[in-house]
Amino acid sequence: MLDSFPQAFSAVVQGASRGIGLALVAALLENDRVDQVIACARQPSSCEALAALAERHGARLHTQALDITIPDQVAALAQMLQSAGIRPHLVINVSGLLHQGADVMPEKRLEDIDFDAMQQVFAVNTLGPAMLCRHLLPLMAGEGKAAFLALSARVGSISDNRLGGWYAYRSSKAALNQVLKTASIEARRRYKNVLVAALHPGTTDTDLSRPFQANVPPDKLFTTAFVARRLLAVIDRLELEDSGGFFAWDGAKIPY
Ligand SMILES: NC(=O)c1ccc[n+]([C@@H]2O[C@H](COP(=O)([O-])OP(=O)(O)OC[C@H]3O[C@@H](n4cnc5c(N)ncnc54)[C@H](OP(=O)(O)O)[C@@H]3O)[C@@H](O)[C@H]2O)c1
User: Fold this and answer.
1) Tens digits of per-residue pLDDT, 224-251?
2) Which of 206, 207, 226 to mutate to test the pocket of ligand 1 (most atoms within 8 A of CB)?
3) How far is CA 26 from CA 40, 49, 202, 228, in A?
4) Using an 8 Å Cβ cutoff, are 45 and 17 in contact?
5) What is the pLDDT of residue 92?
6) Which atom of ligand 1 is nearest to the CA of 203?
7) What is the pTM assigned to this prediction?
């Protein structure tokens, strides 16, 4: 897998502390073509799972503290990569916010819309990834296949919205898709070998989906390891002409 990428490439995974991000880091480290994984998390030093991976994979795993909602920290990641001479061929923004204690809960109706909660969801799901695009696209490897991906969600598809609800999450992911589509157009001109795309992982058994799993049939609730493998397989198959698209875990194209 990942044979479409050059030998010995570096990958950045943003949102690596748990859930799908952690599984992506583990899957990348198992891949012989991957020379180094830069795993970004808010508090990497207190993440036991990342420590266990570091013990197993040594210097191939580099961790970086990054809160995606703090622009200076995104700039600091870019500076670190630049001074270490790392030009990644693969960047995946995984972090996302759907709910958070009593502060952020997906809205069922208009009265539930809360300015602060919506602002927080947009900061994590849209503004942060946009800043990552801004700082990392120019640093990506200029030769060979290179890909900048962000995990979006099918519920961010405007044409697929039949159920309503979840105003903040849906609209933040729709806006993320637009950021990625726009960046893909600029990349075609400025970073010609870099494809930019949005990915939908499918309903995955993580903290994010846990409160909403009751009506999900067991065969439709994926493990993080399965999703990581499937997403890497999709990324492996994506080509430059797919840039700007929105793809599900099985490779199917999702309309915006
Ligand atoms: N699970 C699903 O069913 C599903 C379905 C569709 C789309 N998705 C998308 O897939 C992605 C991964 O979801 P998941 O299920 O793996 O979620 P998760 O288990 O809840 O993990 C969320 C990740 O985002 C990180 N994060 C949150 N706020 C952050 C911030 N300000 N700065 C940096 N990192 C931050 C968390 O780090 P901390 O540990 O520091 O909090 C954690 O690593 C998300 O974008 C989500 O929207 C998931």
Assistant:
1) 999 999 999 999 999 999 999 999 999 9
2) 206
3) 13, 10, 19, 9
4) no
5) 99
6) 3
7) 0.98
Q: Whose CA is nearest to atom 10 of ligand 1?
A: 151
- Does the beta carbon of 97 lie inside 6 Å of ligand 1? yes
- What span, in angstroms and rounded, lies between the C-alpha atoms of 166 and 175? 14
Read off the pLDDT of residues 70-107 as tens digits, 9 standing for 90 and up. Answer: 999 999 999 999 999 999 999 999 999 999 999 999 99
Residue 18 Cβ contacting ligand 1 at under 6 Å = yes
**Within 10 Å of residue 207's Cβ, how many Cβ atoms?**
10
Residues 63-66: contacts with CB under 8 Å, at least 24 apart: 63/16, 63/38, 63/39, 64/38, 64/39, 64/40, 65/40, 65/41, 66/14, 66/40, 66/41, 66/42
Does the Cβ of 204 fall within 6 Å of ligand 1?
A: yes
Decide: 156 in ligand 1 pocket, CB within 6 A: no
pLDDT bracket for residue 26 (50, 70, 90): very high
| C-beta 201 within 6 A of ligand 1 | yes
On whether the CB atoms of residues 22 and 29 are closer than 8 A, the answer is no
